[in-house]
Amino acid sequence: MEMISRIRSSVIRMHSLSRASWRLLVARRPPVVRGYSSGPAPRVCIVGGGPAGFYTAQQLLKARQDAVVDIYERLPVPFGLVRFGVAPDHPEVKNVINTFTQTAQHERCSFHGNVTVGKDVSVEELRQAYHAVVLSYGADGNRSMEIPGEDLSGVISAKDFVGWYNGLPANKELCPDLSSETAVILGQGNVALDVARILLSPHEMLKKTDITQHALDALAGSSVRRVLIIGRRGPLQIACTIKELREMVNLPNTRADMLPSDFEGVAETLKDLPRPRKRLTELLMKAMNGGGDGPVENSWGFRFCRSPVEVLSGPDGKRAAGIRLAFNKLEGSGEVARAVPTGQFEDVECGLIISSIGYKTIPIDPDVPFDPRRAIVPNDMGRVQDTTGLYCSGWVKRGPTGVIATTMNDSFDTARILLQDIEAGKLDVSINKPGAQAITALLQTRGVKTVLFSEWEKIDAEEESRGKSVGKPREKLLNVEEMLKLAWS
Ligand code: FAD
User: 213-220 and 190-200 are packed helices; what angle lies between their axes, rounded to 10 degrees?
Assistant: First the structure.
């Protein structure tokens, strides 16, 4: 409620403060671009500087030689989950940053960091200043497990844990308790495997990555030796991909610890599986049968057909000491098999519980349609329901699933739809719109100063230089104030 009234009052302030200057800005002539000189340049604003935002911008700039695109990002730094989600030991995945940088440096594109849409500026205000607004603000919320005890100390979300080791300012104080021997991860997707791998990777491997120094130090003193990764369904429904599974299998000084009973009947189905699922299952079975002879310090293992029902507290009633799991049986087969409780339970002792059951989009502005059940902005191929000129791409559009390539395709689709709407006259671009000029002026009246891409590059250079001195690709700044000071220095 407080958030909503703050948004409303800022909208009102804007209308009373800047109507005259707004008119002036609207009257200014837009840039005349060869090939489209008959009308004003379409001005598009993108909310969110993650992969969806950058890929949407890239496609718009490429397909329309006169389109002008401005990206507004909440943080002073760009790239969304490529910076704050992708695991530090996957540097090759982060190469997309080079493409995003080219887009940001395009003469018809500008990046404005340090702007929280929905708080500093409303979506309606953006819609007044631009011909079209594309929401690409990702899925920032957590799905909760909704079981008793999930608020106990020692229970954290994978989202926060990932944010902590990747330097997300909001998670810098997380301090996960790594003092117990067993950690349990709930969920069996790639994020769960990223978390398990980071917990068990040797210090020597992690210290060469861009993992934050505080996480590196905490992990060096970690007592976690055993990681169990729990899933509601069976080995044939597991949600991770083969690359992440192979990395677990190949972790040094670590053995897989699976239960053969979890794999009953799996070997017989192998021959009928589609190829990617077959390869994944074969690797899983190899891990189950393996063991290796070398010295082993750590272990990890999947536990299948189990759902969390309660986090168990220790004697003080405050800290997690274990988790109660309900056994499931599967009804149906293949990808659509359903987990049904059997009424049997098992308790697992553990001091760290990380829930990796998914991210969730949250509404940022009361004027934007939102589907709370699916936790997305309701849309038809990227056109936001019932709102002309408003579009969406990425995780906001389709929910928090899929890799960067999926987000890329989906963002290209939204850009194409937007351009088609211009061509078809469904989106009116005949009236001049002031774009960033009006919005930055408006933000100034509210005491909000933006971080331009060239200013982010100062942060980037500083991070690389700090990293270089300790043999890492970069040492991320964790503090927004420090980022801003450096950007504006
Ligand atoms: P995001 O990347 O979340 O970007 C959204 C942006 O919007 C953020 O920068 C955010 O700060 C900004 N924002 C939010 N609210 C506002 C607001 N109110 N105003 C302005 N800006 C706002 N994919 C791979 O291909 N390989 C991997 O190895 C991989 N690893 C992953 C690891 C993790 C832990 C996670 C969660 C995902 C991973 N992915 C990976 C998936 C990939 O990150 C996503 O497909 C992609 O980031 C989704 O892009 P997006 O732009 O929709 O969202």
Answer: 60
